[in-house]
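Encode chain A's predicted structure.
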Amino acid sequence: MIQRIDTGARMSEAVVHNGTVYLAGQVAGDLTEGVEGQTRQILASIDRLLGEAGSDKTKVLRAEIFLAEIKDFAEMNLAWDSWVPAGAAPARATVQASLYRPEVLVEIVVTAAV
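Encoded structure for chain A:
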């Protein structure tokens, strides 16, 4: 069985299959905030979606983080480090990428166990 969460015409925000939840790339709703603020918003969205899928941040297996500017790595990690539970850090990659709007400073994709 496949469960789709917050499905639109182009994509679903999350898809659950065989005990794994795959999240679409999450971006902040308030793009006037800086990197740390956008990251905190994204992590709150991830928490909500994981909860809807029957999972939580302790079960995140992998994270892919896209930064508009790699120089913002430390600022993004201020939010990330306070969000990740001790002993439950996922496999992670962080890269610089051209994101779909100049105001989007961070995008995060996660995969988690249910």
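The mean pLDDT is 97.
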